[in-house]
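This follows on from our talk about sequence and fold. I would like you to pick a protein and set down its sequence and fold. Go ahead and set the record down below:
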Amino acid sequence: MERPATRRQYLAVLGSGVAVGLAGCADDDDDEETDDAAEDNGADENGEDDGDLGDDENGDADEDEDAEAEYDDDEDVTLSGDEEEDGDISTSGDVTLEDDAEVEGDVDAGGDVTMSDDAEVEGDVTAEGDITLSDDAEIDGDATGATVEVSGDAEVDGEIEEND
């Protein structure tokens, strides 16, 4: 699964185009390229914000920084290793976070949420199924699920609510 561009990557691409324009490196023959850049960074032909972020360098639609990462119905989501998700995760399937995976946003699962091996969520975790934390996993927010099991050195830094 190809990961969407992060806001940091978007700003790096945007920043490089702005720096070229400000440095005076663009000449009159580059008007067409400048117009393309204006479209890509969400500006109209006059440089005004048109509310559309356009496409990134791969031709993929850019995401709003507060956008929720949506997954297909019943798709299980697994993040492992040093993978990071910068934004909310919402799926009707299960969510598994392991091996230092990190989510900077809320997790909303239609199934179970399992966190282990130093996984961390900086936001609330809500599951229609069970939430299980082990091996130093951490939620910096509230945990709401059918059951919430916290073992080992895992912790929840917010409210725990079970909806049996």
In short: The mean pLDDT is 74. The chain is about 15% helix and 25% strand. Residues 120 and 138 are 5 Å apart (CA to CA). The radius of gyration is 20 Å.
